[in-house]
């Protein structure tokens, strides 16, 4: 058996077996068992059977603990049973830490003895390749058939502070955070950071390979666990990503925020993409879309996660965007203001009334317009800090306060000032507790007595001003209620033709308007089609994925001769199976957009909207969401574009019909979501105009 505690489980390509639509699992035997058996208990201090056994024996006052080892010799000074069948009573939970070769027999022994939950520490399954994956799948099916549940394999254990369960290699501090992690070292680092902030874990479960119990199952179990107030997830593989989103949204809806740390910034997942949609999507952009759909707060490091968890624990969903900056020096005030705005906060100028209230409390040289600069008042009158803070917290125009600078270090100037600073910290903590507005404090003396007093009273203290600003920024972005996640539509009749005409007709049937067009096979038919359509036309060669790149598109053809010549030229160079003759659209009053949908192996259909036409991959101004989109969700994505002002009219150009665009985007994503055989679909460009919108090109890539 081998377990890498630092990185136990790489992302896996297989999915856990289907169990139906988001059915909650009964995990009581996992988190609150009547008794526990450690299978593979060992005296060897280098083995997991020893580490788990040591922790398990510490909870004997809460429940019986049995050590199982087929050799039958005493382990850790305790009697050992050769099998679970030999135990004196039925045991709900079996923790199995035996070599992979003996794992199947150990699972059978546990199930035959009536175990309702199995924690599989043993590694050597899906992470090793196809043969190991097949064994893992077989074991998971065996466990489910017995009416039991399996955590892992290749996991690091489980903990529940409320039930006194400790079956992990290291004890973790108790607290309000439910942790789900694929990395043991991430869990340990987070526990150390949270402990510094007076927080700990209500539950911890190591995901492992998710052969049976998934991250979504654990989120649901934490959602109904009274002692869990917040849910922290480190996951590299989401299994059924839509189930994860639904579980997170349900947790968020009952006031239990989900904070996610994950990987996925590389482009490896989109290698070989054949469309703009595939080329512009990445694991990270898809995960961001999933997080928005589920109301999940995504962070980039364990320290960011701890900072946000602390803020959510202390301040919940309180608004925080309009920030007052309070500093005792101009440099700190300016830097903190820049950082606050860089993290999505605003530092608005105070109203005359608020400025006057601050002026009445501070020395004449103090700055009172926001940022507030005490201008060295700390040495002369340390009480200026709580006096200014009281005014700011009582002001309706202030939603949060960012304090930065020297506070916490004034005590070094002597015992009298040290005592006064500590008293000021106590007063500031009480103000924050009673006003319940978010606050973050940066001090150069984060280990001093005043800083410790603030932390003790529930005021977040940071050693770097950028951490303090980021914490408030993440809190300001937190969404207390996640948007509704739409169900996937029933699959439509599969599309078997990946040509332009088939893609165009699919979109037209979905409700997307296209210019008048005819499908033809010869130059003469093309001339006749152009006469029937009237006006300038476009000729497109069919059967090519990238028509423009191959020279398979001829624009602005105004005469029969031009149409005839274009088709003859394409026939000679490309020999396509046919042609599309299409009315030439007027681009003068429109904005070219791209709308695409890509099938993600974890999250299903993912929609993309952005600036389209030939600039798509150059500007890369795109936004993503889980498909199918509602018109309202489509409009929100359009509002995320950097160039969204183009849609509202600039430099004398009229605004586009955003209602029509939103409906069309939603229709495209609905049609794509109903065709799981389509790996990638896009309409590019989609011409948005003041009078509606028009699809000018479409393509599909079949999976």
UniProtKB/TrEMBL annotation:
Residues 1-26 are annotated as: Disordered. GO terms for molecular function: ligase activity. SUPFAM superfamilies: Glutathione synthetase ATP-binding domain-like (SSF56059), NAD(P)-binding Rossmann-fold domains (SSF51735), Succinyl-CoA synthetase domains (SSF52210). Keywords: ATP-binding, Ligase, Nucleotide-binding. Pfam families: ATP-grasp_5 (PF13549), CoA_binding_2 (PF13380), Ligase_CoA_2 (PF19045), Succ_CoA_lig (PF13607). Residues 504-553 form the ATP-grasp domain. This is Acetate--CoA ligase family protein. It comes from Streptomyces cavernicola.
């Amino acid at each position: 058996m081998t377990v890498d505690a630092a990185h136990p489980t790489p992302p896996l390509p297989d999915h856990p077996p289907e169990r139906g639509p988001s059915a909650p699992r009964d995990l009581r035997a996992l988190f609150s068992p009547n008794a526990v058996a450690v299978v593979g208990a060992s005296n060897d201090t280098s083995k997991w059977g020893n580490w788990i056994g040591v922790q398990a024996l510490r909870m004997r006052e809460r429940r019986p603990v049995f050590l199982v080892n087929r050799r039958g010799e005493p382990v850790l000074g305790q009697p050992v049973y050769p099998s679970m069948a030999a135990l004196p009573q039925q045991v709900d939970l079996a923790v199995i830490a035996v070599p992979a070769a003996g794992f199947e027999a150990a699972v059978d022994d546990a199930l035959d003895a009536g175990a309702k939950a199995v924690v599989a520490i043993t590694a050597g399954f899906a992470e090793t390749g196809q043969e190991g994956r097949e064994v893992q799948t077989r074991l998971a099916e065996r466990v489910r058939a017995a009416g039991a549940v399996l955590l892992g394999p290749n996991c690091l254990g489980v903990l529940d502070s409320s039930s006194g369960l400790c079956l992990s290699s290291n004890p973790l501090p108790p607290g309000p955070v439910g942790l789900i992690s694929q990395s043991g070292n991430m869990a340990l680092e987070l526990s150390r950071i949270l402990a510094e902030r007076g927080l700990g874990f209500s539950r911890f479960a190591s995901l492992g390979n998710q052969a049976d119990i998934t991250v979504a199952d654990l989120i649901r179990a934490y959602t109904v666990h009274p002692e869990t107030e917040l849910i922290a997830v480190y996951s590299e593989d989401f299994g059924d990503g839509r189930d994860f989103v639904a579980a997170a949204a349900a947790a968020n809806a009952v006031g239990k925020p989900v904070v996610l740390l994950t990987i996925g910034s590389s482009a490896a997942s989109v290698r070989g993409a054949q469309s703009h949609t595939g080329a512009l999507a990445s694991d990270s952009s898809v995960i961001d879309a999933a997080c928005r759909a589920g109301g999940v707060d995504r962070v980039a490091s364990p320290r960011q996660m701890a900072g946000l968890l602390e803020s959510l624990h202390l301040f919940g969903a309180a608004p925080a965007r309009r920030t007052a900056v309070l500093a005792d020096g101009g440099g700190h005030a300016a830097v903190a203001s820049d950082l606050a705005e860089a993290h999505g906060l605003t530092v608005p100028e105070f109203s005359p009334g608020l400025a006057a209230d601050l002026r009445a409390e501070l020395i004449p040289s103090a700055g009172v317009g926001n940022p507030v600069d005490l201008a060295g008042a700390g040495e002369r009158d340390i009480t200026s800090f709580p006096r200014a803070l009281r005014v700011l917290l009582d002001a309706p125009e202030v939603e949060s306060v960012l304090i930065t600078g020297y506070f916490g270090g004034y005590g070094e100037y002597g015992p009298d000032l040290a005592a006064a600073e500590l008293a000021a910290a106590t007063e500031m903590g009480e103000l924050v507790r009673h006003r319940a507005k978010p606050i973050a404090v940066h001090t150069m003396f984060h280990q001093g007595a005043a800083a410790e007093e603030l932390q003790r009273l529930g005021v977040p203290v940071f050693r770097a001003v950028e951490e303090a600003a980021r914490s408030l920024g993440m809190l300001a972005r937190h969404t207390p209620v996640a948007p509704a996640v739409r169900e996937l539509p029933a699959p439509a009749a599969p599309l078997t033709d990946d040509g332009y005409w088939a893609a165009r007709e699919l979109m037209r049937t979905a409700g997307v308007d296209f210019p008048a067009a005819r499908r033809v096979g010869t130059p003469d038919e093309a001339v006749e089609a152009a006469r029937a359509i009237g006006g300038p036309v476009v000729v497109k060669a069919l059967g090519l994925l990238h028509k423009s790149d191959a020279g398979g598109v001829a624009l602005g053809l105004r005469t029969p001769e031009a149409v005839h010549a274009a088709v003859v030229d394409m026939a000679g160079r490309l020999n396509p199976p046919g042609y599309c003759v299409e009315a030439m659209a007027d681009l003068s009053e429109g904005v070219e957009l791209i709308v695409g949908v890509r099938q993600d192996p974890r999250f299903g259909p993912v929609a993309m909207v952005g600036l389209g036409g030939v600039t798509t991959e150059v500007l890369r101004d795109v936004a993503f969401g889980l498909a199918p989109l509602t018109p309202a969700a489509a409009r929100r994505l359009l509002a995320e574009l950097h160039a969204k002002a183009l849609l509202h009219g600039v430099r004398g150009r009229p605004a586009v019909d955003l209602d029509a665009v939103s409906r069309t985007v939603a229709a495209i994503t609905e049609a794509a979501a109903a065709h799981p055989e389509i790996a990638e679909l896009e309409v590019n460009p989609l011409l948005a105009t003041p009078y509606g919108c028009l699809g000018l090109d479409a393509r599909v890539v079949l999976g």
